[in-house]
Specification:
It holds the Pfam family Aminotran_5. With about 425 residues, the chain is of the alpha/beta class. It contains twelve helices and 13 strands. Strand 12 and strand 13 (about 380-385) form a beta hairpin. The N and C termini lie far apart (about 50 Å).
Length: about 425
């Protein structure tokens, strides 16, 4: 059993925390820029792994350069399903045959939400919260306009997130689909997926969860929780690289019921039949539209290897230890300077980033980037301290919060 990381209340020294961290050695597996003082934006773009350099080189030499177009028959055609199953097994609690990698997060959201709406004819509403990520809200507003539906807005506390009680009040027999984020992109609030899904099902609605800020850092059990649909990006905690394709999850029980709206040849039952009419494939292949983004699926495979090696429960334990330490430093160093915390304090309600607020943070973030300290700013006044457990040390976090403190102090002089 790994040695537990001491709580910040007992040990304030980042060096001691790193020495006690059972996952500390994983930090060296990532490519680290010698110029960056502190990278606190792993919840937006994860660092590349050193192993990925060789994977790309081998891909160019052996597959693209060596096997050429034969690689489609030998591996690439099945890659969206193979990598999807790996994501399902390693991070989602999903049995094989329910997860596929394809398209961007936006396109995957559109395809699955449209399919869900069409699978509930006669229902007139889509339910979502008004603090969800802009893409999720925009996609839903577009689908509602396209299908003549009404968007019912849940209005959560923006320093927390959507509660079971709010969902119970919002869904009804008019609800076609409920769309929520597992971890709120702004506050880091961790929603109760199991209970919220059960409440929505009582009304006969389908539920889609956006897992973009939880996949790879939060133990998830989609099958056990009876989740219907899920979408998530792969360039945050799955370290797939900029523009890496999203994944989609559709529960076995719904796959034959749903018809996704973007009919492409790669989702057909017989891809090379070149037939006159579209007939969807069985299983998750029907949710593919165009040519699979093979290059975009390379890097994330190395991160899935690391997640399997470290274990998702151990990753979650370090995530909580890092966020605990961040909150400890904020309370000790930043709160006296007028900084407030906009992230839940309870472990059961917190993802892997901490959001802090201050009226000067927009300008402060620009100053920090100039000195190679890289947090994430979110309007109107929030800095997100994004903590990717396998690539972030306590010392790096300490350096970052120290820089935020110094920037605020200098402004007061």
């Amino acid at each position: 059993m790994a040695t537990p990381i001491p709580a910040p209340a007992q040990v304030n020294d980042a060096t001691a925390l790193d020495a006690a961290d059972p996952l500390a050695e994983f930090v060296s597996r990532f490519v680290a820029s010698s110029d960056v003082v502190s990278y606190l934006d792993g919840n937006s773009l994860g660092r590349p792994l050193r192993a990925t350099e060789e994977r790309f080189a081998s891909f160019i030499r052996a597959q693209w350069g060596g096997r050429l177009i034969r690689s489609w028959d030998e591996e690439w055609m099945e890659l969206p399903l193979v990598v999807g199953d790996r994501i399902g097994a390693s991070t989602l609690g999903a049995a094989a045959g329910q997860t596929v990698v394809a398209d961007s997060t936006t396109v995957m959201l559109y395809k699955l939400i449209r399919a869900a709406v069409d699978a509930r004819p006669g229902r007139s509403e889509i339910v979502i919260d008004d603090d969800n990520f802009p893409t999720d809200r925009f996609v839903i507003e577009g689908i509602a306009a396209e299908r003549g539906l009404t968007v019912r807005w849940i209005r959560p506390d923006k320093s927390a997130g959507v509660t079971v009680e709010q969902v119970r009040d919002a869904v009804s027999d008019s609800t076609a689909v409920l769309v929520l984020s597992h971890v709120a992109y702004r506050s880091g609030f961790l929603a109760d997926v199991k209970e919220i899904t059960a409440v929505a099902h009582e009304s006969g609605a389908l539920v889609l969860w956006d897992l973009s800020h939880s996949v790879g850092v939060i133990p998830t059990a989609l099958d056990e929780w009876r989740v219907d649909l899920a979408v998530g990006c792969t360039y945050k905690y799955l370290n797939g690289g900029p523009g890496a394709p999203a994944f989609g999850y559709v529960a076995h029980r719904l796959q034959s019921e749903l018809t996704q709206p973007i009919w492409g040849w790669m989702g057909a039952g017989d891809v090379f039949a070149m037939s006159d009419g579209y007939r969807p494939a069985d299983g998750m292949r029907r949710f593919i539209s165009g040519t699979p983004p093979v290059v975009g699926m390379l890097a994330m495979q190395d991160m899935l290897d690391l997640i399997d090696e470290a274990g998702i429960d151990a990753i979650r334990a370090k995530s909580l230890a890092l966020t605990d330490y961040a909150l400890h430093l904020v309370d000790r160093w930043l709160a006296p300077l007028g900084v407030a915390v906009a992230t839940p304090l309870e472990h059961t309600s917190r993802g892997s980033h901490v959001t802090i607020t201050h009226p000067a943070f927009k300008a402060v973030t620009a100053e920090l980037w100039k000195i190679n300290v890289i947090p994430d700013f979110r309007n109107p006044d929030g800095i997100r301290i994004g903590l990717s457990p396998l690539s972030t040390s306590f010392e790096e976090l300490n350096r970052g919060v120290t820089a935020i403190r110094n920037a605020l102090v200098s402004r007061e002089k």
